[in-house]
Amino acid sequence: MKIYAIFVYAFLYLPIALVIFFSFNAGNYALDFQGFSTRWYAKALTNPFIMDALWFSVKVAALSAVMSTVFGTMAALALQRLSGWKRTFYDALIYVSIMVPGIVIAIATLIALVTVFKFLNPFLEVLAPLFDGQAPKLSLGFVSLVAAHSLFTMSLVVVIVRARLSGMDRTLIEASEDLYASPFRTFVQVTLPQLMPGILAAFLLSFTFSFDDFIISFFVAGPNTTLPVYIFSSIRRGITPEVNVIGTVVLVGSLILLFSAQFLSTMGKGKKRSASKDDSDDS
Amino acid sequence: MDTSVKTKAERRRKWTTAMLLAPATLWYAVLLLLPLVTIVIFSFGERGPAGGYIPAFTFDNYLNLPTRSKAFFNTMTLAPLGTLACLLIAYPLAYYLAIVANKKYKTLLLVLVIVPFWTSLLVRTYAWIFILGGQGLPKLLAFIGFEGVRMINTPGAVLIGIIYIYLPLMVFPIYVSLEKLDTRLLEASSDLGASPLRTFFQVTLPLSIPGLATGSMMVFILLMGEFIIPQMLGGGKVYFIGNALVDVFLQSRNWPFGAAFAVSLVLIMLVTITVYMRYMSKLAGGRDDVSVM
To answer: Residue A231, class by beta-carbon neighbours within 10 Å (0-12 exposed, 13-18 middle, 19+ buried)?
Structure first.
C-alpha cells in the first residue's frame, strides 16, 4: 500500500521535476541537456512578449477574481432568501454555467459578442462628433475576457459560499438581531467573519482558474495574449527551454501564492484566538 | 400601523435581495443565456461565402455531424475510460491517505496531491510531450532493445495525460468520504468474521459511493469538453469533440456547423449526466448526499 502511494506520488511529480530540471538547460533544445545554466531565465524574463502576457494575465485574473468573489457572495446571500421557482431558476443557471464546457462557452461568447458588436457599432458611429470624429467602437479585449472568466468563477463562488452559509450557526445572527444590531452591522460583524475562509478559498480558486485558463482566453481575448495563450503558441513553434522556464516560474509563483494564503488564514485564526483570550482576561 | 411597518420592512428586504442578485442576473443573462441562445439559433443557419453566418432554417448542420463521427467516438470512449482509470488509480491512494497513513504526515501527503492541481495545466500536459515524444521514453526503450515504439499521438498517450491531469480531482472527494467513515464499522465487520475483502466490498465501498460519484462526475464533465490534452498529446490524430469544434470554427470558419457541434456536445453531456446521476443515486440506495458539487 505504501509502495503504491510512493509510486503514485512519483507519477505526479516526476514530470514537474523534469520541467524544472530542463529549465536550467544551457543548450538550445529542450531535451538535450548541455549543462547547467540560468541563461534561459535571463532570456525569458527580458522577453517583452512574455512579460506583457504575464502582466495581462495577472490583471485579468485579479479583476475577474475580485468581481466574481463580490458578485458571487452577494448572490449566495440573496439566494438563501429566495424560494420557489426563482430559486430553481437560479440553481439551474449556476448548474448550467458550471457544467457547460469552457470550449462551448468560449465559442458561444465569441459568436454572441461579435454579433452584438456588429449590431451596436453603427449606432455608436452617430456619437462620432462627440469624440473628435473617432467613434467609440466595441471590440473583444480586456473587458470581454474579464467578464467571460468571471461568469464561470462567479458560479464557483456561489457554490462555495453557499455551502459555508448552510453550515453557519443561525443563532448568532438571531442573537445579534436581538441585541438591536442593524442588518448591515449584523452582516459585517457576524455573518462576514464566519464566511471569510470560504470567500478567501473561492477567491483563490477564481484567480487560479482565470490565470490558468487557455480556451476562453484564446477566443475571447481579441488581439491580446494571456500567458497560457503565449505558452500554447510557443509549444507549437517548437520546444525550447524557455517554455520550461515559464512553467517553473508559474509553478513557483502559484506555490508561493497558495502557501501565503494558507499562512494568512492560519494567522487570522491565531489572532482571533488571542483576541478572544484577551476578552476573557478582561472579564 | 403595525402592518404598514411590517410591509415596509418586507419591501425593503425584497429590494435588498433584488439588489444583491442584480449583478449575477446581468452576468447570467448577457454571458450565459445570450451566448447559448445565439449558438442554438446559429446552428440552424447557413455558412456565408467567406465564412460566418447567414440566417436560415435548416437541419443540414446537424445532418453533417456524422462526417466528424470520429471526434464523437473518441470522446465517448476515452472520456468514460479515462474517468474509470482515474477512479481505479485514485481509490487505493485515497484509501491509503484516509485510513492507513500515519496521522502525522496526513496533511502533508494530502497537500502534495493537490499542489499539481494548482499549477499550470498547459505546462503539466506539455511535460508529457517531453516524456512520450521521440526523445523521451521511446529513446530509453530503444536503448534497452525495444526499437520503434511510438507513444505520442496515440490514444494511450491521451489516456496517460488524462490520468495525470485529473487524478488529484478524483482523489480528493474519495478521500473526504473515506475520512468520514467510522472505522469501528470495519472492526465490527472483521469481528463478525468477514474477510478483509468482504469488509471492503460490503462496508467500505458502499459507504464511499458519494465521494466516488462526486469525483467521477467532475472528471467526466471536464473530460467531455477536453481540448488541451488531445490537442497536445493526440497531435491531430486522436481528437475530441472540443478539438473538432475549434477546427471547424477556426480552419473552415463554418460558424453554423461549429454551433451545431457545440449544441450537440451540451446535449450529449446533459443526457449522460442525468442517466449517470439516476444510476448513482440508485446505487447509493436512495441516499440524498450524492451530489455533483
So the answer is: buried
Q: Are both B52 and B2 inside the same structural domain?
A: no
Hey, how many other C-beta atoms are within 10 angstroms of the C-beta on A143?
Answer: 13
- Amino acid (one-letter) located at A176: S
Hey, are the CB atoms on A11 and B96 less than 8 Å from each other? no
Tell me whether residues A98 and B293 touch, CB distance under 8 A.
Answer: yes
* In the predicted structure, residue A114 carries a pLDDT above the cut 50: yes
- Which percentage of chain B shows pLDDT scores above 90? 39
Any domain includes B292? no
Nearest residue, CB atoms, B42 vs list A22, A111, A158 = A111
Q: pLDDT by residue (tens digit) across B100-115?
A: 888 888 888 988 898 8
Reference B165, options B80, B74, B83; nearest CA is: B83
Top residue of A68, A100, A159, A232 to mutate, by most chain B CBs within 10 Å, is A100
Give me A168's grid cell: 453557519
Reported ipTM: the value is: 0.86
- Examine the domain organization and report whether B190 and B216 are in the same domain: yes
Does residue B167 belong to any structural domain of this protein?
A: yes
**Residue A97 contacts B where some CB pair is shorter than 8 Å:** yes
Q: What is the pLDDT of residues B25-77, one digit of tens each?
A: 999 999 999 999 999 999 998 888 777 788 888 888 888 888 888 999 999 99
CA dihedral (B136, B137, B142, B143) positive or negative = positive
A229 contacts chain B (CB < 8 A): no
On chain A, the residues whose CB falls within 8 A of the CB of B16 are 78, 183
Can you list the domains of chain A with their CATH numbers?
A: 48-263 (1.10.3720.10)
Tell me, yes or no, if A52 comes closer than 8 A to chain B by beta carbon: no
* Low-confidence winner among A16-30, A122-136, A231-245, B152-166 (lowest mean pLDDT): A122-136
The residue segments making up the domain with residue B32 are 1-38
Report yes or no: A112 at the B interface, CB cutoff 8 Å: yes
